[in-house]
Amino acid sequence: MINSGKKICLIIGDPVAHSQSPAMHNAAFKALGIDSQYTFLAKQIKPDELANEMQAELHAFNICAFAVTIPHKEAIINYLDEIDETAKEIGAVNTILNKNGILIGYNTDWKGAINSLLKYTPLKNKKAAILGSGGTARAIAYGLCMEGCEVTIYSRNWEIGKKIAEQYGCKIYSWENHDEATNADIIINTTPIGRVDNASPISIDSIKDKHIIFDVNYKKGSTQLLHLAKQKNATTIDGLEMLLQQGVLQFELYTGLKAPEEAMRNALKHE
């Protein structure tokens, strides 16, 4: 496929085999009749391989764009030639364009998350709790603060969480207090808890029917957090909605064309 003559969009991460980005974007290419020009592939790159991969392959002429997922969203910045101002402010990149060998980083996570939430609630003056302090948490904190939310971060890494809180004017609490997220209107899980197991980052007793529970993870069936939230009649948003919303923005950066959102949505599997 690398030698097929098509422009390649590549998602990189560790793990990456579970990603539905290839199915979503390839469906979009097909819907617009440009699948003879573009294809979307996945490649697993471990953290200690990132530097070599960037040098060896990622400037390849026919790789026109990248999607970047966990755990590379922050580290990838070190290998880019230019960074969009918003991505620079956030400190994390999930989208890269290769323009004649110049790698330019963007962040569509923040807007994808905000667009997902706005389908269910206005955000101004709402209280939001973010569980975690990685690249996705940074992007969502940025977006929520832009919308006028009161944001509290519960971080397992105090120093990293403190930096985010100071940057955006958020509150910060240690992970030991994370069940206090029950005091928020919106609870957002950005940790990997529940991605591959049946664990939940908060207990069922912390979930109320008033809550909007947003898990950026997605898996076959449902994450345990969303399963518990549904038992309590809370409003739920899963990671596939965020994947779709940020993917629409990515697609338009990749191609310069309006994304076929319904075709992309139909390609995502809520199995």
What's the total number of strands?
12
What would you say the CATH architecture of the largest domain is? 3-Layer(aba) Sandwich
CATH domain topology of the largest domain: Rossmann fold
In the CATH hierarchy, what is the superfamily of the largest domain?
Answer: NAD(P)-binding Rossmann-like Domain
SS-derived structural category: alpha/beta
Major sheet characteristics? 6 strands, mixed
Determine the number of helices (DSSP H or I, runs of at least 4 residues): 9
User: For the CA atoms, what is the radius of gyration?
Assistant: 18 Å
Task: Explain this structure.
With 271 residues, the chain is of the alpha/beta class. The chain folds into two domains: 7-107 and 242-267, Leucine Dehydrogenase, chain A, domain 1 (Rossmann fold); 110-237, Rossmann fold (3-Layer(aba) Sandwich), CATH 3.40.50.720. Helices cover 33% and strands 21% of the residues. The protein contains nine helices and twelve strands. The strands form two sheets. A six-stranded mixed beta sheet has the order 2-1-3-5-6-4. Strands 9-8-7-10-11-12 form a six-stranded parallel beta sheet, sandwiched between helices. Helix 1 packs across helix 8. The mean pLDDT is 93.
